[in-house]
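FAQ: What does a multi-protein file look like?

Like this. Sequence, then tokens, then the next protein.
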Amino acid sequence: QVQLVQSGGGSVQAGGSLRLSCAQASGSPFSINIMGWYRQATGKQRELVATFTTDGTTNYTDSVKGRFTISRDNAKNILYLQMNNLKPDDTAVYYCRGSRVRDYWGPGTQVTVSS
């Protein structure tokens, strides 16, 4: 069974930085394309934060442009999200997403930004 494992996250003050990582759990029967980060704040719908598109370019939601950077280590199949100048509105549970025939989601990691 394919599982995604997330790390990073936590609590920071506004203006701080955090880095999230997402990788497949060991023992996965096949590799998937881990391509995006999403978040869901309390009482809101899950939204796209940043993703690699099919042609390898990146796409960010407007509110994080210039502050967040998505990257990946293709050799290790690890996806990262570097989050700088964090704001209280960035507080949410962050999920990574992968795909191969169907979508796979990470378990989520809490990011809390205090003012």
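And here is the next protein:
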Amino acid sequence: QVPLVESGGGLVQAAGSLRLSCSASGRTLFDYDMGWFRQIPGKEREFVAVITWSSGRTSYADSVKGRFTISRDNGKNTVYLQMNSLKPEDTAVYYCARYYSGMPKYWGQGTQVTVSS
């Protein structure tokens, strides 16, 4: 088990910004690809963004490209998701995930993001 802890969610108006953080207490995230996903009640969890451990290469879902930025600070053992120009449809529970063998395997407890119109 890798206890991942997300923070930074909350209520924001449309066009506003939030920054989510994901940290792993007692374990390093340096050697792993890390991702963000989100889920709306009644729907499947969907991919948002991923960052590789080796090169820091990033990839995004089309729905957030140009608005969200994933980054990592290995010195702080933390991964971030900067979310700008938020839309009501971005409202969801956001989860941090640590990848293993190319797939998200370990999950945080999630943090709620609510965007009001």
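Q: Is there any per-entry metadata?
A: Some entries carry free-text notes. For the entry above: The mean pLDDT is 93.
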